[in-house]
Fold this sequence. Notes:
Blueprint: H1 5-19, H2 27-34, H3 38-50, E1 54-57, E2 63-66, H4 75-82, H5 107-122, H6 127-130, H7 137-148
Antiparallel strand pairs: 1-2
Helix pairs in contact: 1-3, 2-3, 4-5
Amino acid sequence: MRFTTYTDYSLRVLMHLAQSNAGTTTISELSDFYQISRNHLVKVVHHLGLLGYIETTRGRAGGLKLAKPANQIKLGDLIEQTEPDDNLLDCLTPGNTSCVIDKQCRLKGILSSAKVDFIKGLNQYSLQDFSKPRLKTENLFKTVAIEAI
C-alpha cells in the first residue's frame, strides 16, 4: 500500500502542530517550512478541520492548532480518513462486479482481513508517538546543510 501525497501532507501538518507546543501555526509557515504549495495545504487543512483534527482561527492573530491532544489522534484512523481509495485491488471496491472469478475468489477475503489488521496495527500509535523529532530543528537544518556540501 502506498499513501497519497495528500495523506503525506496531512501527516506533516499534524506533526508540525503537535511539535508547536499548543501554539498556533499559519498555512504560510507550513508552506515555507515544508516547501509545499500553499494551495495544496489549504485543501489539506480544510479537510483536517472538517475531520475534527485541527481548529482554525481566521484573521491577523489567527492560525492552526490541534483540536484534541496528540495522544488521541490515532495513525490508522487518520490514514483511513485521508486515503481516497484504500482498496488494494479494483475488485475490492464495493459494487464492482467486473471480475469473472468473483464468486470463487478467496483473495478478496484475505486482502480485506490484511487491510483491517494493517489499520489496527497503525492504531497502536498516536500522533504523539511519531511527532517527536529525532533531532532538534536547528540540528536538522545543520544536518541538511552538511549533506548538501
